[in-house]
Design brief:
Helix content of chain A: 55-70%
Number of helices of chain A: 3
Number of helices of chain B: 20
Strand content of chain A: under 5%
Radius of gyration of chain B: 22 Å
Order of helices and strands of chain B: HHEEHHHHHHHHHHHHHHHHHH
Shape of chain A: elongated
Strand order of the largest sheet of chain B: 1-2
Largest sheet of chain A: none
Structural class of chain B: mainly alpha
Largest interface: B-C, 129 and 129 residues
Shape of chain B: globular
Order of helices and strands of chain A: HHH
Chains: A mainly alpha (124), B mainly alpha (507), C mainly alpha (929)
Helix content of chain B: over 70%
Structural class of chain A: mainly alpha
Oligomer: heterotrimer
Number of strands of chain A: 0
Number of strands of chain B: 2
Chain lengths: 124, 507, 929
């Protein structure tokens, strides 16, 4: 049951992330990447199995085993992943911003571009 | 040898980067010499590491003095050492040549050092998640080098490159996490030990993770259909940076070899030889595609990018054809990396002398130094094609003779010889277009700059050495392949290295 | 030693020439000439040994059983002689042939390089090394054909020659490798000794075909002959040297060399003989119909090479002797003919036989020489050509087996020879007689003395050999034959007169028939009216290349080299397949229901969080075109995720996620400010559905996998960390101990990434200005600056205090440098976005690079500290007695590390988020540069 909670949420996040990533506009891609990174981080933690009310903070008297604490390693990994994800998202955003003004459009699929003005071209 | 040497290739540039940042602010003049010094030291250290790795001892470095698999380990085997040295050589050449580039945008030198730290770390680490981290380090640095003064074409290419790699990172995390969820560890050696012991019900998941890792590394190695991004990206990068990027596809190759021969190669399980057929087939496809797209490339840099695909595909295919072929492939890899880097530097120099046309194939003004440039182009082209007596020829010979009696050899032979012919033709055509069919005009451009020529000279010397020393070099490659084919050595070395006793930790 | 000199001397000379300036015409010519003469001298020195019958060898090991060594036997010696002797003559000729505009230094540099490569081929002591030089000849020939690079035909001819011969070289490489594998080594001695076992091997056909491909392409055998006529765009000395005397002989040399190994089989006979026959005939036939003087000679060369090939195909030692003999003769007369053609071209400015007529009156000497030479070409008695032709005829009659060929070979041979007589006659008649010159640009006159000398020498050779073979060529031929055949040399006589026999008859038929044929042709079809041959290999070649190119274009345009969504689609689909395949094969295993999560399950809150996450992300997906709304929903998802982390007992993650969330959303808002507020509608709905399908499959896949893993008993190594965190890591917050201690290197890398990201964002936006009118909306005015500023003044110290608090407790409770840094950064960012112009928020007042640098340095150096105590990098010296000053301090040295983390995070986050935020006020550059 619990598994399904986490798993299904993961599935939805992934699906939405993937779909947005496949859009042809930089901004939408960024949103997609954000969703995807949420999914990945949750997935990481989930790979340490699900645990409630037992954060991996050593409490005196409680034997320090996985039977009493959540698996700390995936959490540490996820921590790293979150921060890296943040850094990368910020970068992509900046690129999207600059690209829009340098290339005159925020599309990331030149094959899609039709004749005539691109609606996302910066106003002149 | 002092054990700390193993960590130097990672820590030195990692510390040098912030130092250079401070220099940039308060002592701008120091940057150049300081970063050059750092790269030189890296070269020397890498050389000595190769020497120690060649003595059949696998160096293991327990970070934080924690025992494997609990802490992170750095492992120095022949393959890692070889790649460290290669990286250092390319880095030195590229950095020297990039002197004029460095001032175009802020923080160039720091970015460069971080790039080196990332590469070296990726080659040295013995831990899957740590490999991910170093991948991110070298990626962000490569973004930086690619984009720090980007605009227009290069900006779009850069954006694509970044997004594709971010997706790749996401896949990497999923694979690593899944592997951890199933096997419960991240250390290569530990994984190699525990994977064969998995219950049958877990094989499916483990193999899924394995193949996903293959996809991830395939993206880096530009294995088609995962590597469509490569030609545009490389052609968008300024010459010296593209030269450094020549090593980047090798990171993917390294990952594939490491995974398939160590992590999933040890012991006989349902996992051993995972996806070898897939790698071979896709490698062949990559070679073919690269050759064709080289034929249709509109500008020289894209042509070279396509030839990167060719060499990458050939290497991947060969690496899937058994120990002997792998030995040949390793020897060839070093050469082709040097050759491609050299080519990018030369093309950059040529482009600077052709005015607005730059590296385009349309008829443009003649270069200001036809003889120098022509000679350099012939040397570089010969190196890329593997024309004798360049080492590429030897590498091809080794690969071919190494695949004489393996299934799939005919395809491989056809691919190697065919792509060789095609590359020869396209480069000859490119050369005759750029140097012979000129409009008679000559662009008013400065002669080959001192830094560029220094970088080029370095690479030429390096590849000539690799050719002249073909005997010991191919021997080293063969030993490397052998070491990879027998991972037990690696595994024991990692698992049996004990941390230093630290009594005061008791209380 | 001499051997090394023999091969390497030309290269040295070539280098010298290349370095000399172009105006040093005589200097370079002298260097080249002396090199060639020196070569001849060295051959002279080695002659006694060679004629004494021994084989000279030198070698140093190179790689994998391949030596860098040379080996000279009779055959090699003879070819070396041809290369050097004719080389000397060509150099002399070229010195006077080249016009002042042509850069002589470059020319002679190429020519000498070619000479060296050619010698390498004949002297190489192992097959691999031979291939090396083989390819070098292709390269140098490419450069020499393209010497007049301003001419399009020269460029094309050069490319074509390189493609054909270079490709052949690659095949040869393959063949040689197979051969070496069969023979158990690449060295010639080994290979030549291993004939029997090679021929017995099932791989023999592969080796044979690949080697023959190499030989045939080089020697312009049908169907690869077409490159040779187009190579005539080269300066005539090059045509005389490479494309008649030496390089094109490399192929037949290879046949002679490997005959003992590969020959004497049915396959060899069929392939080589038929190729030779076809080439011999076609070449001769085409030659008749050429209008270009050099074109005629080129096709004649093809035909003669076919003749030699045919001889080697006949599979008898005597035929091999004849072949070698003809190679020598052909080199002599064809080179002289090319040179005469060059003289004519030089003096009349034309090579077109429709213009060149009756030159006899203008240049009698040249005419005489040319006539003698073409007599040799036609096989007229008393000339060298006659002798080898006779031997050739004799051999064609010796066929015993192969009934099919028994009759065909001699007949075709006679016909072909007739044709060759015909074109020789045409050459003489058309050029030197047959009326007056037509429309020549300049009035022809006799060539300068030095230009003629090489021709004269060669013609004398033709005569001498033709008249007194026994005293001239006999010993050379003998030693060459011994080199090729070893002890299987048959006895043969070079006498001029063998009495009335079939060969003589065939010669007679050929001579008379040829003359007759020419007369008839001129009478019936005026040869001058034919200007284009029906079929030309060039057109086929061009079509091939163009075809590949067009096909390639289609292929490439289909491929997603430029479209990001397409590239991503490929990647994701492949990823899905890669994961689905094994899972479908092995299944995911059955969930173990006994595995129950720790703690009691918070169903209600769990459900709420679930709904929040799922609903918001689906919502964001469906209204993604309304970007602002989508962004808010994404923010909600992030919130839900961090709540989820709280539930899943990951407090550190929850905190970090929350803060990162705030930072990210703020940043996106700032950026969205400069992007269009809505996404335009995408063309094509099917595409959305396809993506939707892919996305759903991916989602389901991830769901199943996650579910499968969650319901498995954990095999994690993590209890180790729980166990050691407090006693050995000095902290109760295991996650924090892991990131600063157990896996410190990860963290070091991670903060590097964050720092570099900040720097890069700064660099990307550096000096980048958004045109004011280019913005979709004016920059927001800060609401009530005064108020915000006061808030800022109050809030900043508070934020700082909170940060310090979080930082200090981090090692034992949720928090740490990471969270602390983010907190501080986020507060600053929020204030900045709110428009609080507090000085500390502006990179131009306080740049963040030093923060990043300092943080990275501190973190990195903390690790280095442990070197002092002889411990590995990043060893925590928590409560380390070796720290006398600090002694039993309550906190681990990891705290320093965490301080570095803190600083980097602050610097990186602020730089990343502030830089875009600054755009409204102009550019980001700031005081840094």
């Amino acid at each position: 049951m619990t598994g399904w909670f986490v798993a299904s949420a993961l599935g939805v996040l992934t699906a939405c992330g993937v779909w947005l990533c496949l859009r042809a506009r930089t901004f939408d891609v960024v949103l997609g990447l954000t969703l995807m990174s949420y999914a990945v981080n949750v997935f990481l933690v989930a790979m340490g199995r699900v645990a409630f009310e037992s954060p991996p903070i050593i409490r005196s008297g409680v034997p320090a085993t996985l039977a009493h604490y959540a698996d700390p390693l995936p959490q540490a990994l996820a921590l790293t992943a979150i921060v890296i994800g943040f850094a990368m998202t910020a970068l992509v955003l900046t690129l999207a911003l600059k690209a829009r003004y340098v290339n005159g459009s925020d599309e990331c699929d030149p094959t899609l571009r039709k004749a005539g003005a691109d609606p996302t071209a910066p106003p002149r | 040898m002092n054990m700390h040497w193993i960590i130097v290739p990672v820590v030195l540039p990692l510390l040098m980067a912030p130092l250079l940042l401070l220099c940039e602010r308060w002592r701008p003049r120091w940057q150049w010499s300081l970063s050059l010094l750092s790269t030189l030291i890296l070269l020397l250290v890498a050389a000595s590491l190769v020497r120690s790795a060649d003595s059949d001892t696998i160096g293991v470095y327990l970070l934080g003095n924690w025992k494997a698999p609990f802490g992170i380990v750095l492992v120095l085997d022949r393959l890692a050492a070889m790649l460290l040295l290669l990286t250092a050589v390319i880095a030195l050449a590229s950095q020297v040549a990039a002197t004029s580039l460095a001032t175009r945008g802020p923080h160039f030198y720091a970015f460069f050092q971080v790039q080196l730290a990332g590469l070296n770390g990726a080659f040295l680490t013995g831990d899957l998640f740590n490999l991910f981290v170093f991948f991110e380090v070298l990626l962000i640095a490569s973004f930086a080098l690619l984009l720090h003064d980007a605009n227009g074409r290069s900006l779009r290419a850069g954006f694509h490159y970044v997004v594709i790699n971010l997706v790749g990172s996401a896949l990497f995390l999923i694979a690593a996490a899944l592997l951890y969820g199933v096997v419960g560890t991240l250390n290569f050696a530990d994984l190699a030990i525990k994977l064969p012991l998995l219950p049958a019900s877990d094989i499916g998941l483990a193999q899924a993770a394995a193949l996903l890792l293959l996809v991830v590394f395939g993206i880096k190695a530009a294995l088609l259909p995962l590597g469509f991004w490569l030609p545009a990206t490389y052609s968008a990068a300024p010459g010296p940076v593209a030269a450094l990027f020549a090593i980047m596809t090798k990171v993917g190759l390294y990952g594939i070899v490491r995974m398939s021969m160590l992590v999933f190669g040890a012991g006989s399980t349902a996992l051993t030889g995972w996806g070898a057929e897939a790698i071979f087939a896709l490698g062949m496809f990559t070679t073919l595609f690269g050759a064709v797209s080289a034929l249709t490339a509109p500008r020289l840099t894209i042509l070279i990018g396509s030839l990167v695909l060719v060499s990458s595909g050939t290497l991947l295919a060969a690496s899937a054809l058994g120990e002997q072929a792998l030995a040949g492939a390793l020897y060839y890899m070093v050469h082709s990396t040097l050759a491609i880097a050299l080519m990018f530097l030369v093309v950059h120099a040529i482009g600077l002398q052709r005015g607005a046309v730059a590296d385009g194939f349309e008829q443009g003004p003649a270069v200001t130094q036809p003889v120098v440039m022509g000679t350099l182009f012939i040397i570089a082209a010969g190196a890329v094609v593997g024309l004798p007596p360049m080492a590429g020829f030897i590498g091809k010979a080794l690969m071919l003779s190494g695949t004489l009696n393996v299934p799939g050899a005919p395809w491989f032979w056809a691919a190697v010889l065919g792509s060789g012919l095609l590359s020869l033709y396209v480069l000859a055509r490119a050369g005759s277009r750029m140097f012979w069919s000129t409009g008679g005009t000559t662009a008013a451009a400065p002669p080959l700059s001192m830094p560029s020529s220094a970088g080029i000279a370095l690479l030429v010397v390096a590849s000539i050495l690799w050719m002249a020393l073909a005997g010991p070099a191919s021997q080293y490659a063969a030993d490397t392949a052998m070491q990879l084919a027998h991972p037990a050595e690696y595994i024991n070395a990692v698992m049996q290295t004990a941390p230093l006793p630290a009594p005061e930790r008791a209380h | 030693m001499t051997l090394y000199a023999l091969v390497l001397l030309p290269y040295a000379a070539s280098l010298v020439c290349a370095l000399l300036p172009n105006h040093a015409r005589n200097a370079v010519a002298w260097i080249a000439g002396l090199t060639a003469l020196a070569g001849c001298a060295m051959l002279g020195i080695t002659a006694p040994a060679i004629f004494g019958g021994d084989i000279l060898r030198v070698s140093v090991p190179w790689f994998a059983g391949v030596a860098f060594g040379f080996r000279m036997d009779g055959l090699a010696w003879t070819f070396g002689g041809i290369i050097y002797a004719i080389g000397a003559l060509v150099v002399l000729y070229a010195r006077y042939y080249l016009s002042p505009q042509d850069p002589p230094a470059r020319f002679f540099a190429y020519l000498l390089a070619f000479m060296g490569a050619m010698l390498g081929i004949v002297l190489a002591d192992n097959l691999i090394l031979m291939v090396v030089f083989w390819e070098l000849t292709s390269l140098t020939s490419f450069l020499l054909i393209g010497f007049w690079s301003h001419r399009a035909d020269a460029r094309q001819g050069a490319r074509m020659a390189l493609a054909v011969t270079g490709g052949g070289g690659l095949c040869l490489l393959g063949g040689v490798i197979v051969l070496g594998h069969l023979a158990g080594g690449y060295s010639l001695d080994v290979v030549l000794a291993a004939g029997a076992q090679v021929r017995a091997d099932p791989l023999y056909p592969v080796a044979l075909v690949l080697v023959l491909l190499g030989a045939f392409t080089k020697s312009a055998q049908f169907p690869f002959h077409f490159w040779l006529p187009h190579a005539m765009a080269a300066p005539t000395p090059v045509s005389a040297y490479l494309h008649s005397a030496t390089m094109v002989k490399a192929g037949v040399f290879l046949l002679a060399r490997l005959y003992p190994v590969l020959g004497d089989t049915n396959l060899w006979f069929v392939i080589v003989t038929s190729t030779g026959l076809i080439t011999l005939t076609l070449g001769a036939a085409f030659a008749i119909f050429q209008q270009d003087l050099k074109g005629l000679l080129a096709y004649s060369t093809i035909s003669h090479l076919g003749l030699v090939t045919l001889l080697f195909g006949l599979d008898s030692p005597l035929a091999v002797v004849a072949g070698i003999f003809h190679i020598i003769n052909h080199a002599a007369f064809k080179a002289s003919l090319f040179m005469s053609a060059g003289i004519i071209d030089h003096e009349t400015g034309s090579r077109d036989m429709r213009q060149l007529n009756g030159l006899w009156h203008f240049m009698p000497i040249t005419a005489t020489l040319a006539m003698v030479a073409s007599g040799a070409m036609a096989g007229v008695p008393l000339l060298n050509g006659f002798l080898s032709k006779e031997m050739f005829f004799a051999e064609t009659l010796q066929l015993t087996e192969h009934p099919g060929f028994k009759l065909m070979v001699p007949v075709i041979a006679t016909i072909a020879t007739t044709l060759s007589v015909a074109y020789s006659v045409r050459f003489i008649h058309d050029v030197f007689f047959n009326g007056e010159p037509v429309g020549l640009t300049k009035t022809p006159h006799e060539a300068p003395r030095w230009l003629r000398i090489p021709v004269e020498i060669l013609v004398v050779v033709c005569l001498a050999v033709g008249i007194a073979p026994a005293w001239t060529v006999a010993p050379v031929l003998a030693v060459a034959a011994r080199g090729a055949l070893g002890d299987r040399v048959p006895d043969y006589s070079l006498a001029l007169w063998h009495g009335f026999n079939f060969p003589l008859l065939m010669s007679f038929i050929a001579l008379t028939g040829g003359v007759a044929l020419y007369v008839v042709l001129q009478k019936t079809v005026n040869l001058h009216t034919i200007d284009q041959l029906p079929m030309s290999g060039k057109r086929v070649f061009d079509r091939l290349v163009r075809g590949v190119e067009i096909g390639g274009r289609r292929f490439i345009t289909w491929s997603p080299t430029r479209s990001l969504p397409a590239a991503l689609t490929w990647i994701i689909v492949i990823a899905i397949v890669a994961m689905a395949w094994p899972l479908l094969r092995h299944g995911v295993g059955t969930p173990d229901l006994s595995v129950m999560p720790l703690g009691s399950e918070p169903t209600v809150i769990g459900l709420l969080v679930w709904l929040l996450a799922v609903g918001a992300s689906i919502g964001a997906t469906f209204c993604y075109r309304k970007r602002f709304l989508a962004l808010l929903l994404i923010g909600v998802v992030g919130l839900a995720v961090s709540l989820g982390f709280v539930l899943m007992s990951a407090p550190d993650l929850a905190l970090t996620q929350l803060l990162v969330e705030i930072a990210t959303i703020t940043l996106i808002m700032v950026v969205l400010h400069f992007l269009p507020p809505t996404s335009p509608i995408e063309p094509g709905t099917w595409r959305k559905w396809r993506d939707g399908f892919i996305a759903i499959v991916a989602g389901i896949g991830v769901m199943l996998i996650a579910q499968a893993v969650i319901t498995r008993p954990s095999a994690s190594i993590a209890s180790y960390y729980l166990d050691r965190a407090l006693p050995e890591g000095g902290g109760t917050n295991v996650v924090n101990v892991i990131i600063v201690d157990f896996r410190g290197l990860d963290t070091l890398g991670e903060i590097t990434v964050l720092g570099v990201a900040g720097l890069l964002i700064f660099a990307v936006l550096w000096n980048f200005r958004i045109p004011a009118q280019g913005r979709d909306a004016a920059p927001t005015e800060p609401w009530n600056p005064l108020l915000v500023r006061t808030i800022a003044r109050l809030l900043l110290p508070l934020a700082a205090m909170v940060a310090v608090f979080l930082y200090l407790r981090g090692h034992n409770l949720p928090g740490g440098g990471f969270v602390a840094g983010l907190t501080l950064a986020v507060v600053l960012v929020a204030l900045r976005v709110a428009g609080g112009g507090h000085p500390i928020l502006d990179p131009r007042q306080l740049a963040y690079q030093p923060w990043i640098a300092g943080g990275l340095l501190i973190a990195g150096l903390t690790g280095v500290g442990s070197f002092l105590f002889g411990f590995p990098y990043l060893t925590t010296s928590f409560a380390h007695p070796a720290l006398p000053v600090i002694g039993e301090v309550p906190f681990a040295s990891a705290m320093f590390f965490d301080l570095g983390v803190f600083m980097t995070v602050v610097g990186g986050t602020l730089l990343a988020t502030m830089s875009p935020g600054l755009l409204p006020d102009g550019h980001v550059g700031g005081v840094d540069q």
